[in-house]
Amino acid sequence: MVGPTDKVAQVAAAVFHAGDAASLAEAVEWARVELGGGSAPSLATVRRHLETLRQESLGLEQWRAERIERLGAIEELLQTLAYIEPDSVCYVVGRAAEGYVDATGPAHLRVVGSRVAALVADDLEQQGFPPCEVSSLATCMGSIGVIHLNDGPLHVALAILPEKQESHQPRSVVDGRSVALVDEVGFRQLLESMSTDPA
């Protein structure tokens, strides 16, 4: 039997999948109103339902191909960053570090020990990427620059962090919670394993 919270998650996933909400949070609120209330599900639960919907609509083969394409675009960006920022260390963080990328939000990357965000954004544009937006984010290390890059399958938020021990830790620099974290080599190995795995 489907509980009320999971029902909200199912409806929210369907709303987002249909393009009727700009974000998962908006889809959840729409679903709660439509169902007359109920507890808000976790975004992870909504994403699981959304993934099932996408698999059903695209077919597993096409869904898997799109996922590999998005991950491949991140790997190409990591190579570019290694070229333009040779003295820095790049990481993929969060869901993308575990191979999960979709249209619900950007993949999160860190560049540690880099120059200021605006200069990195300029260099990315010189490498052929579209113009990037730069914003700031309050963290446990103070305000940092974040580069927002959208280019086809590539949807990334690139945090520029100072060379500090906490920048290299598998923890959120905003709230300290544990997060997945892989460097360029680890991410390439993840992509290779997914590309060869028929499942």
Structural notes for this entry:
The protein is of the alpha+beta class and 199 residues long. The chain folds into 2 domains: 4-58, no CATH class; 68-196, Beta Polymerase, domain 2, CATH 3.30.460. Helices cover 45% and strands 20% of the residues. The protein has helices at residues 4-17, 24-34, 43-58, 60-84, 117-126, 184-196, and strands at residues 89-93, 107-112, 133-139, 142-151, 154-161, 181-183. It has a 6-stranded mixed sheet. α1 (4-17) packs across α3, α3 crosses α4 (60-84) and α4 (60-84) runs antiparallel to α6 (184-196). The longest helix has 25 residues, at 60-84. The model has no long low-confidence stretch (mean pLDDT 87).
Structural class: alpha+beta
Mean pLDDT, to the nearest integer, reads 87
Give the overall shape: globular
CATH-scheme architecture of the largest domain: 2-Layer Sandwich
Content of β-strand: 15-25%
**Going across the major beta sheet, what is the strand order?**
3-4-5-2-1-6
CATH topology of the largest domain: Beta Polymerase, domain 2
Number of helices: 6
Give the SSE order as H and E letters: HHHHEEHEEEEH
Distance between the termini: 28 Å
